[in-house]
Design goal:
CATH class of one domain: Mainly Beta
Protein name: Glycosyl transferase
Largest sheet: 10 strands, antiparallel
Mean pLDDT: 93
Strand content: 25-35%
Distance between the termini: 56 Å
Keywords: Glycosyltransferase, Transferase
CATH topology of one domain: Beta-galactosidase, Chain A, domain 5
Helix content: 25-40%
GO molecular function, one term: glycosyltransferase activity
CATH superfamily of one domain: Glycoside hydrolase, family 65, N-terminal domain
Number of helices: 19
Strand order of the largest sheet: 1-2-9-10-11-12-19-16-15-14
GO biological process, one term: carbohydrate metabolic process
Length: 829
């Protein structure tokens, strides 16, 4: 297959920084390379071959189109356009799949909220632009068909989506019912196919798949269009060049439009397809809720079709999308950065990924089906850290939504469903780190906005109907729970697990021959987590600073005392000589200690003890990070623990169930790498912090892309460690806490632009050979242009700071009136 040239470092594509796009020049990427459409309520997953699916708000409960995970071939199902030459019967797809007909030219441009795929074959070029307009619950496909040859051509076009029956899990599993409930209505003159099936009740919403060009036929029944024994690479209607005009009655509803175009040499046709979610309201006069039969009120659908029949309206919607993303990203932009990798990630891709994690938590990606979990309590709080500067109002509402899933004892539902905002009782409140992350997200939001009022906002508890306390009370409940739930060493109990979901310590040894007996009730276990202790130290420092800012010194002193109590426990019981141990198991034995045969040192306890202030005055912080460098650091990132576990240990749980080098068993978990990056910044080691930053940065992986495999523009959750059979191979890209924490690392750690309660602090920790950089930062509706100079080749230490030409004391820029533009110069010397 002929392809466009790409840089030698990556045979599959390259960064187009000027347009904020990643350009893929051959479709057979090592894995499907994904992009996300949508930024408000309507979302779509779109791969470089037009695979993926769409949904409204909740990938489990409001799925519009089907997708088949873990299939052969990978990435099956999506937004397909079949192009057929009426004269020869030649059939192909602009995105290569599913036909996989050889193309004369292929290009996919993944941008911010859109994907543009262009395919050409035998004188016909087809371009498809997929995007979700801001504020609308629909997806647009802008189609451009060109005859680039010297003779007239008759081209037949078949569109294709496969509808999901909204509730995705039942759609995939309950065929005895779902094969009987599919319903569609077609208005051929309007190019509209309406899908109205709901799994449980007949509700007042439906899906619309419409074509703005006059159509010559349609299909809505998969068996008629594809064929019972055919695949999407051989749909019988397309191969025959003739639609069936089928109407689905149960079985598998689809949407397909048939268009015939006569194209003169050089002629171009442009039109749009629309995939929309339409809610008729809870009790519309036309269709009161729960009545049957479900009568579609097509007024909204017809209005959508009328609007986007004008291609200028499509272009206007795309222009609004580009402007929206330019605005989102403008809150933080770095220029004159010595490393283009850091600049492209900080300016575009890292922030863009932060929006995806904020919107979807860990629910819907190429590695998460959208049906297994919803929003994570721990996850969503961390996602706010990398997102709050873009849209603080949305971050505020998310904090309140998250807090409402906390239980009155201080624990939390580990996950909750985005549509209902109800906690998942099947995965309850036994992760004893969850509640502390609420302190971090709330403090980050207040530092960004100065909004004290959020602390007084009433928020309910998930287990107390009608009972509401202030958000500040929720934070206090979180701190109090950890202080109450401590083990024999005065360290926090771990519960089912802490941040490391797979470290399950609620079993104990009963025999010298290492047979194990389950401890039973998690709440009866004495297993303790040093990682939670370090997180608690950090959270209490944050809360103490908040109380100082609020001038509530008595409360600040109380929190400081709790910090000191935990710090004493950490320094007394958790230091192992060269590093902090990871935990104590249910029998009181240390985990992550030099006394252990395997798993002697873990990454998480080193990171959070250092970030929480442990070891700051006795040299242990530096020693702990040096031990990380000695035992855990590799050019592909920091390994989670060493040595890897070679066999399963019941007293340690799932962490030992993985093969060595993968996931939590000595894999490179990129998320917790970032905490070590910040630890090095805290110690002033800019060269080491940046070396570590690059070790997991996807844009730095292009020369090893065949090994790395995942997208080179967004972070992955995991990279296989040195103990693995495939070291350097990445998995689980896009929806990972790595995104938010890496943006914190680069923006606040390396570049050192740090929101505080009183203003922006300028405290970079950069490589010594960087001469400087400039950052545009919008903070509390003030534009700051911050230029940092490093004439003495230092990593840290702002010695001189001028604001609008006036030198000030310290390194915190005082607050300025809203709408101001402030020029700042900082010098390291």
């Amino acid at each position: 297959m002929s392809t466009n040239p790409a840089p030698a470092s990556n045979p599959y594509g390259y960064f187009d920084d000027a347009n904020r796009e990643y350009v893929i020049t051959r479709p057979d990427t090592p894995l499907p390379w994904l992009n996300y459409l949508g930024q408000d309520d309507f979302f779509g997953l779109c791969t470089n071959t037009a695979g993926g699916y769409s949904f409204w708000r909740d990938a489990k409960l409001r799925r519009l189109t089907r997708y088949r995970y873990n299939n052969v071939p990978m990435d099956l199902g999506g937004r397909y356009l079949y192009i057929r030459d009426a004269a020869t019967g030649d059939v192909w797809n602009p995105g290569w799949k599913p036909m996989k007909t050889a193309l004369d030219r292929y290009e996919c441009r993944h941008g911010t909220g859109y994907t543009r795929i262009t395919g050409a074959r035998d004188g016909i070029e087809t371009e498809m632009l997929f995007f979700v307009p801001p504020g609308e619950t629909l997806e647009l496909w802008r189609a451009t068909i060109r005859n680039t040859g010297p003779v007239p051509r008759k081209v037949q076009i078949f569109s294709f989506v496969e509808f999901c029956l909204f509730e995705a899990l039942n759609d995939m599993t309950n065929y005895q019912r779902t094969y009987s409930i599919g319903e569609v209505e077609v208005e051929p003159g309007d190019g509209a196919i309406y899908h109205k099936t709901e799994y449980r009740e007949r509700r007042n919403h439906y899906a619309l798949f419409g074509c703005a060009h006059p159509i010559n036929g349609y299909d809505t029944d998969r068996d008629a269009f594809v064929g019972v024994h055919n695949g999407l690479h051989e749909p019988q209607a397309v191969l025959a060049g003739k639609p069936r005009n089928s109407i689905a009655h149960g079985w598998n509803p689809i949407g397909s439009h048939f268009i015939e175009l006569d194209l003169k040499p050089g002629e171009t046709r442009e039109f749009a397809f629309v995939l929309a979610y339409i809610d008729q309201g809870p009790d519309s006069p036309e269709n009161p809720k729960f009545t049957a039969p479900f009568v579609i009120n097509k007024t909204k659908g017809r209005a959508i079709m009328a609007k986007y029949r004008d291609i200028a309206a499509v272009d206007d919607a795309f222009a609004r999308l580009r402007a929206t993303w330019a605005s989102h990203l403008s809150a933080f932009q770095v220029t004159d950065c010595p490393d283009p990798i850091a600049a492209r990630m900080a300016n575009t891709w890292n922030q863009y990924q932060c929006m995806a994690t904020f919107n979807l938590s860990r629910s819907a990606s190429m590695f998460e089906t959208g049906i297994g979990r919803g929003m994570g309590f721990r996850d969503s709080n961390q996602d706010i850290l990398g997102f709050v500067h873009m849209l603080p109002d949305r971050a505020r509402q998310r904090i309140l939504d998250i807090a409402a899933t906390q239980l009155s004892d201080g624990t939390c539902y580990h996950q909750y469903q985005p549509l209902t905002k109800k906690g998942n009782a099947e995965i309850g409140g036994d992760f004893y780190d969850d509640h502390l992350w609420l302190v971090l997200s709330t403090c980050a939001y207040i530092k960004e906005t100065g909004d004290r009022a959020i602390l007084d906002t009433p928020v309910g508890y998930a287990d107390k109907s009608g009972s509401r306390d202030t958000l500040l009370h929720h934070l206090e409940t979180s701190i109090a729970y950890t202080m109450k739930q401590r083990g024999p060493h005065g360290l926090p109990l771990i519960g089912h697990a802490d941040w490391n979901d797979c470290l399950n310590l609620n079993c104990f040894s009963t025999e010298p021959n290492e047979s194990f007996q389950c401890a039973g009730d998690v709440k009866g276990s004495i297993a303790e987590s040093v990682m939670i202790a370090g997180l608690f130290l950090h959270a209490t420092r944050e809360l103490e600073a908040l109380y100082r800012w609020l001038q509530r010194d008595t409360d600040a002193a109380r929190i400081a005392e709790q910090h000191a109590t935990m710090l004493d426990a950490v320094e007394t019981h958790a230091w192992d000589g060269e590093w902090y141990i990871r935990a104590f198991d249910a029998a009181g034995k240390p985990v992550g200690s030099k006394t252990c045969g395997e798993g002697k040192i873990f990454i998480e306890s080193q990171a959070w003890c250092v970030l929480g202030g442990a070891g700051a005055n006795n040299g242990r912080a530096r020693q702990a990070l040096e031990s990380v460098h000695k035992h855990l650091y590799t050019p592909d990132g920091i390994i989670l623990q060493q040595p890897a576990y070679s066999t399963y240990h019941l007293n340690l749980g799932e962490v030992t169930s993985y093969p060595p080098g993968y996931k939590e068993n000595a894999g490179i978990f990129c998320h917790n790498n970032t905490w070590i990056h910040l630890g090095w910044c805290q110690l002033g080691e800019g060269d080491r912090a940046y070396e570590y930053y690059l070790s997991i940065c996807p844009a730095a992986k292009e020369q090893q892309i065949e090994t790395y495999r995942c997208e080179p523009y967004v972070y992955a959750q995991m990279i296989a460690g040195r103990d693995a059979a495939t070291p350097g191979e990445a998995k689980n890209a896009w929806l990972t806490g790595t995104a938010a924490w890496t943006f914190v690392t680069v923006s606040q750690g390396i570049l050192g632009i740090q929101p505080t309660y009183d203003g922006l602090r300028i405290d970079p920790c950069m490589p010594k050979n960087w001469p400087g950089f400039t950052v545009r930062r919008v903070y509390r509706e003030v534009e700051y242009i911050i230029t940092v100079r490093n004439p003495s080749n230092l990593s840290k230490g702002v010695a001189r700071l001028t604001v609008d030409g006036r030198e000030i004391t310290g390194n915190v820029i005082p607050a300025a009136p809203s709408g101001s533009k402030i020029m700042v110069e900082a010098e390291l010397c």
